[in-house]
Structures are given as C-alpha cells and as structure tokens.
Design brief:
Blueprint: E1 3-7, H1 11-22, E2 26-31, H2 34-40, E3 46-49, H3 55-60, E4 68-71, H4 77-90, E5 95-98, H5 102-110, E6 115-117, H6 124-132, E7 136-141, E8 146-152, H7 162-165, H8 167-171, E9 173-185, E10 191-199, E11 212-218, H9 219-235
Parallel strand pairs: 1-2, 1-4, 2-3, 4-5, 5-6
Antiparallel strand pairs: 7-8, 8-11, 9-10, 9-11
Length: 236
C-alpha cells in the first residue's frame, strides 16, 4: 500500500491527506500545532505533532521510507526550505511543496524538490491523484463528479482499436485524445521525438504502448480504470 506524509495541516494539506486516504493510501499527517493534529487523527493513518525542522523528530517517525512527502507550509518560506533540506538529507525520494512565490519555487527546485505547487494553479485533490498513481500525468476535476485525466495506455489496451475496446460501455469513460511521440529529424539534423495529439480519435485508431490517452468520465469510473491498470501492471 502506498504511504505518504503531509507536513502542514492547513486547508491545502488536509485536502491532500483526505483525498489520499479515500483512495486507499496510508497517510502520516504532521504539524506543530496539536489542535490541527487532533482534527485529522480520526481519518489518517498516523498524526504527529512535531517541528518539521527537527531532523531527529522526522527520523523517529521513519519518514525516509514513505513514497512521497508533501510540504504544505507555503506561507513560511524559512520553515519550508529547512524542512525540504532535512528531507533531502534523510533520503526522501520524492518531495512536493506548496509555494507562494516564484523565488520560493526556485529555491526549492535548486534544492532538489521535484515539484512545486502554487495553490492558485492546483487544488489538493488533483495533487493527491497525481501522487496515488505512477500512470497518471494530469488530473483535472471539471466538476464535483467528473474529471479529465491523462494516463499512460493500460497494458490491456495496447494494440487494440477504440472500437474493439468499447470503453464507453465497459468502463463508462470516453477517450477524447491520444498523445503519441514520433521520431523525426529537426532542421539541424538532430534526431528528436515529436509529440502528436489526436483529438477526438476515430473508432479505428489503435493504441500503442508508448501512447498516452486523455479520458473523461465520472470520478469513480476514472479511478476504477486507473486501479485496474495498476493492478494488471503489478501482475505482469
């Protein structure tokens, strides 16, 4: 089971934690405010009150073994940067951080934070959905019930036409675009990969292993397909 840590339990951090838990992940929720920690204790796997700039405290909860850490302390740059530095030192492999300015984002990127998040551009639910699956590249909620998601082609879709897959009837989702890469040569003679997007593909279009597909559907149906794809991948 995937395990994540969320440091900072404001509205943004709590939203990420709640969504991850709903999707079956284990979540360690961390804040230096005991009241906030108590508020999430009922639904997260573990809630801990500690100072995230305390290296020994973070090591004590074995944070180095989680799949990813989200630093949701965007309003306090000093604490955010120190926390990121300690997580890198401990050896956390994947770190995402909320930021409030371009400068904050640049500093964290230089330090090795893989992704910086401006709350104006992303919401907690979308970040959680990106974390939960290695096969999801973008996840955009267009309503409370529907999402548009870009995923890698599930293995059981490879080399099959959209007509044969019949995803509308089998999975209650629609494929609205196919992204593929094609080798080509640029004007300088360099070999490059050119991305091509086939919007509203026809029933005869065939999916290939290296493709990505953009799907639309109800959140539950989209999540179900992603989970099936993950499970099949693990069994291969």
């Amino acid at each position: 089971m995937a395990q994540f840590a969320v440091i900072g339990l404001g509205r943004f951090g709590i939203t990420i934690a709640e969504t991850l838990v709903k999707k079956g992940a284990e979540v360690i929720a961390i804040d230096n405010d005991e009241k906030k920690v108590e508020e999430v204790r009922a639904f997260v796997t573990n809630s801990v009150c500690l100072d995230s700039t305390d290296e020994q405290a973070l090591r004590a909860i074995d944070i180095g073994n989680v799949d990813a850490v989200v630093i949701a302390i965007g309003e306090n740059i000093e604490v955010s940067v120190l926390t990121a530095a300690i997580l890198r030192k401990i050896g956390v492999g994947k770190i995402l951080a909320k930021v409030d300015s371009e400068l904050h984002a640049r500093i964290l990127t230089i330090m090795g934070v893989q992704r910086t998040i401006f709350p104006e551009q992303y919401v907690g639910r979308e970040i959680a959905n990106l974390l939960i699956s290695q096969h999801v590249f973008t996840y955009t909620e267009i309503s409370k019930e529907h999402s548009v998601v870009e995923i890698s082609v599930p293995s059981f879709f490879v080399e099959k036409s959209l007509k044969d897959l019949d995803v509308r009837n089998k999975y209650n989702i629609s494929i609205i675009a196919i992204k593929s890469t094609k080798p080509t040569v640029d004007e300088l003679g360099n070999n490059i990969l050119l991305e091509d997007t086939n919007v509203l593909p026809s029933a005869e279009d065939v999916l290939h292993q290296s493709d990505r597909i953009i799907i639309i559907g109800k959140n539950n149906d989209v999540d179900a397909l992603v989970k099936i794809a993950e499970k099949r991948k693990m069994q291969e």
